[in-house]
Write a sequence for this structure.
């Protein structure tokens, strides 16, 4: 999960009550708890295929496969569990995953990866329920704080690696950090259901109906059919940038290269988000696809380049990923795109994207690196073609849609 991880993308902070009694410090503390948890997890995910090689690829493959299919029923699970239990069950596997990475147990990594996928789907659904219409100050506060995790965790890892600290102690330190975030999150969350969750409980469809409608949207809705190449490219390219490129730089540069990726995610989110406000989402998508083309081109020189080019490539990868996520979520969330059931559109997108990520990590085990690069390039071409064609089936006023 690029972390600009797909799991967190729709999170906007829950609305302040009518009395306005919740303070900014309350939101700040809660946002810091999420940043702390994902500082550990995203760093672990980025280094997994370096430290654990084949088992790392398998664990990430299983993680995203379970996330994809649990996402179909996660809304019903959240409805049954309630607010506090949903948060704990959703977030606890992240800490367990970090701890498991400290040991050389392939079976444990894969099993815990499955639980992370399930928990991620539950957590993502809960956060989506608490997303308000107005992104406002509080969502901006969350987004800025959360994105910092990609920098802090990897800088810490880079410093520890350069100091000669072993794998066991690095992940043990990250585990302690994640547990602190988990405790803080459980302590701060209001045990009473939020208004958004209460409303969702009234409107949540049955499990079988949700699966049926999501699959129907994926297979028959022409807007989603034209969007599938973009979803597939988004997932498969993430497996290249997060799973295949980092191991090639070596331990001495690993943490620092991933920190640059995190920095680019922050910059890209701010820049592309602002551009979308000014010029609209579709032009931003075009700029994003061009940025992806540059990144893919640079990746072909990754094995023969000087170290500075590793940083340049990963910086462009971070910009490209941030831009694509910004564009995708703005398009799917637009009232001109899915007017009636946007939840099914998001669920369908997450299913297709996560399956593509799982397939990408699986290919990392058995398919030569160069072949995967060519496959990603072909997917990029498909994404460009279907993006261009989709203009014919989307309402004309959508081209003027901006993120407000």
């Amino acid at each position: 999960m690029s972390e600009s991880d797909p799991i967190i993308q729709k999170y906007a902070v829950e609305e302040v009550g009518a009395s306005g009694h919740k303070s900014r410090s309350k939101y700040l503390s809660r946002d810091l708890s999420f940043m702390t948890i994902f500082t550990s997890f995203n760093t672990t995910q980025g280094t997994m295929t370096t430290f654990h090689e084949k088992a790392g690829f398998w664990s990430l493959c299983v993680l995203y496969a379970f996330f994809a299919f649990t996402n179909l029923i996660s809304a019903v699970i959240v409805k049954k569990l309630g607010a506090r239990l949903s948060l704990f069950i959703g977030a606890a596997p992240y800490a367990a995953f970090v701890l498991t990475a400290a040991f050389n147990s392939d079976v444990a990594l894969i099993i815990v990866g499955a639980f992370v996928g399930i928990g991620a789907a539950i957590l993502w659904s809960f956060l989506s329920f608490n997303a308000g219409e107005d992104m406002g100050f509080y969502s901006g506060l969350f987004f800025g704080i959360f994105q910092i995790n990609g920098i802090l965790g990897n800088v810490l890892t880079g410093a520890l690696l350069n100091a000669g600290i072993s794998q066991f102690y690095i992940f043990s330190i990250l585990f302690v950090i994640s547990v602190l975030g988990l405790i803080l999150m459980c302590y701060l969350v209001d045990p009473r259901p939020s208004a958004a969750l209460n409303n969702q409980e009234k409107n949540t469809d049955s499990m079988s109906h949700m699966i049926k409608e999501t699959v129907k949207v994926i297979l028959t809705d022409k807007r989603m059919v034209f969007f599938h190449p973009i979803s597939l490219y988004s997932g498969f390219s993430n497996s290249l940038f997060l799973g295949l490129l980092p191991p090639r730089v070596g331990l001495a540069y690993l943490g620092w290269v991933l920190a640059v990726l995190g920095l680019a995610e922050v910059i890209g989110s701010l820049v592309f988000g602002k551009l979308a406000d000014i010029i609209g989402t579709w032009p931003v998508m075009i700029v994003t696809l061009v940025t992806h083309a540059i990144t893919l081109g640079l990746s072909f020189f990754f094995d023969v380049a000087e170290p500075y080019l590793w940083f340049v490539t990963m910086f462009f990868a971070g910009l490209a990923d941030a831009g694509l996520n910004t564009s995708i979520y703005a398009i799917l969330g637009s009232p001109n795109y899915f007017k009636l059931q946007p939840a099914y559109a998001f669920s369908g997108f997450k299913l297709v994207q996560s399956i593509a990520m799982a397939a990408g990590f699986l290919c990392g085990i058995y398919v030569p690196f160069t072949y995967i690069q060519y496959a990603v390039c072909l997917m990029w071409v498909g994404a460009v073609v279907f993006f261009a064609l989709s203009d014919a089936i989307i309402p004309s006023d959508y081209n003027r849609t901006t993120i407000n």
Summary: The CA atoms of residues 336 and 398 lie 6 Å apart. Residues 1-21, 131-140, 396-404 have pLDDT under 50 and may be disordered. The domain at 24-400 is CATH 1.20.1250.20 (Growth Hormone; Chain: A;). The chain has one domain: 24-400.
